Amino acid sequence: MHYLIYFDESNKLDQFNANYSYYGAYGGTDAAMARVVKQVRNIFKQCNSFSELHFREYTKDNLVKKYFQTLHTVINENVQINILTVNNRDALYAAQKIGLTATELRNLFYIKIPERLFYGMTRDLSSQESGTIKVKIKVDQNDEYDKLFLETKIIEQMNAHSAYRNKNYRVVNVLSQNSVKSIPLQIVDTFMGMVIFLLEQNYLESSNTAKIKSDLIYRFLIEGNNLMKFQQQIKLYKWTGHEELTFVNISDYVSPFMAYKAAYDSQEIIRIQKIM
Questions:
Q1: Radius of gyration from C-alpha coordinates of the chain
Q2: Which is the most buried residue in 7, 89, 223, 243, by most CB within 10 A?
Q3: CA distances from residue 8 to 13, 81, 128, 140 in whole angstroms, order as listed
Q4: By C-alpha distance, which of 153, 142, 144 is closest to 111?
């Protein structure tokens, strides 16, 4: 069996333009990924839209069908999404204590954080298969990764984990891909964007863009069992300055959003009834 992992990031701690940095990994078997890609391509074709999926660029609801159907398809496959948040202020403070610049810290995080996210997906693979599981990792194309020899370092660390802990997976390659040509990379970008939107409570903003994004997420979550699957298949962690990552219950952020949207919808219904 082959297991595929796709990695992306949002915000950069050495650009000093955000309070948090986010790192996301999207994993599944090669068979599950192939099904997802085939179905999403069919959705693109039916919607006559072949542009990249990017949650940040979802600012008009003319593509709601494309995004909604894609999200619904992905969450109903046997896949896993891990997302890690880093408090940039805490990270920079830790770097200053040992004389590291923000750029040096970010370069070190590039090596350690992806490895931790990926291990969270692979550590339970051993109990599912009897033979060696070959893991392939795809990262969003970035010249900085090449300069750091990120691919080689991740392979070494992941395989060291597997051998030391007596697992039966092996990372065979780490490759960079252009997200334009990679639907899985677009998927992790979109889901990570949604989670960030909930974490930062951007739905409380009064802008049209916030309302459009909120409506997409809400309609997606109330469809079928999507809310339950969203909370089961997306694992959220935060870096707190310790070796082990801290698990965060994503429902702590989903529940306030759902309550807010339910109240908002009720207000809109009342307003329309008064107009009628």
A1: 20
A2: 7
A3: 15, 11, 26, 6
A4: 153
